[in-house]
Amino acid sequence: MKSKKLLNAGALAWMLVLSLILAACAPATGELPLTGSDASSAQEGAAMSGSSPVEVVNSVGESSVTAEEMLKPAEPGEAEQVLEDADASLRAYEKRVLSGENFTNNLFERPFTSGEMLYLPDLNILTASIASDELFFYFTIQLDGLNASSQLSVTYSIELDRDKDGRGDLLVSASSPRGEWSMQGVSIFKDMDLDVGGEKPMLAEVFQRGNGYEDAVENKGLAYARLTPGQEASVQIAISHSLVEAQEFLWGAWADAGLLKPAQFDINDAFTKREAGMAIRDDKDYPLKAVAELDNTCRKAYNFSASAGIPGLCISIVKEEPKPETPQIPGRPPGITAPG
User: What percent of the chain has pLDDT above 70?
Assistant: First the structure.
């Protein structure tokens, strides 16, 4: 009987020690790590609410992916804005462009090789558009065609000006996009010291040397890219609201075959006009030289009415409708018309 009491006392002591150990291992907040189906439910809840990412912990307590990484873009809705770019194909057979080239103002229409001026349809932006949902902004870049290998294997970018002063501050680039939404080949750059464009954003300043987009951001579900479904020569880039951190901004598109280096923005500050060459045949710096195989657009104001003084802003040209001819009564002097 005495031995049974000793045994029971020993068991209680071990149970007390075990409970103390478990209490010490539990999170201080009293919340247990999410695993299995509980983790999936947490991810789904974050996706539906658009809340901050929930960290998922596996069965051995190691940090795994976050819910934000699991949130992929959906199908974009109807375009909210469409930006039309100059079309270099109109005079490509003459190895020149008619419009879209303005080196001084950082506008380039150069989907041609250097020197020979061979036309590259996969670099010729025709239109760019924007759509959005609760989680992402969707940008669609429509090109004139595929390359000689029937692919889109260059780099396509969206540049944002979030403080609306003409100086770009966020650059998202997608190299050789694939058929499905993917983060592969998608790079994100920020200008934290506000020196993109030098002292006068978008305007050419000879030998103005800053460090451009100096801050490379790790892409953890912040931006994706893909080939546009059902369209032969079109690319889509999805940028999360959490990366943009603004609902009003200016945006524009780029296409390039390797020239663009984030540290060299703005491009017309990194090269002189003579070094860059020109795509306009009558210009003394024709043909293209160091700055070739490149196209970009002006910038569109999203969600706000922009003043005409913002550098890089697209200029809207209002076409006046022709006035209908007023019927003239035969035999009457000009200006005297038939009664209404």
Answer: 72
Once rounded to an integer, what is the mean pLDDT over residues 279-290? 97
Query: 3-state class of 142 per DSSP?
Result: strand
DSSP 323: P
Q: How far apart are CA 323 and CA 43, in angstroms?
A: 60
The answer to whether the predicted template modeling score (pTM) of the entire model surpasses 0.85 is no
Q: Return the CATH class of domain 81-302.
A: mainly beta
Q: Which residues contact 334 (CB under 8 A, 6 or more apart)?
A: 328
Give the start-end residues of each E strand in the chain.
Answer: 55-57, 63-66, 81-84, 109-110, 125-132, 136-143, 155-161, 170-175, 186-190, 215-217, 223-227, 234-240, 249-256, 294-296, 300-302
Contact partners, residue 332, CB within 8 Å, separation at least 6 = none
Q: In the beta sheet, which residues pair with residue 252?
A: 159
Dihedral of the CA atoms 236, 219, 261, 308 (nearest 10)?
60
Residue 284 C-alpha from the chain's centroid = 34
The Cα-based distances of 296 to 27, 50, 91, 171 in angstroms read 52, 32, 18, 13
- Percentage of the chain with pLDDT > 90? 66
Range in 148-152, 155-159, 291-295, 328-332 with the lowest mean pLDDT: 328-332
Q: Is the dihedral of CA 237, 89, 265, 103 positive or negative?
A: negative
d(CA 117, CA 94): 9
Domain parsing of the chain, residue ranges: 2-70, 81-302
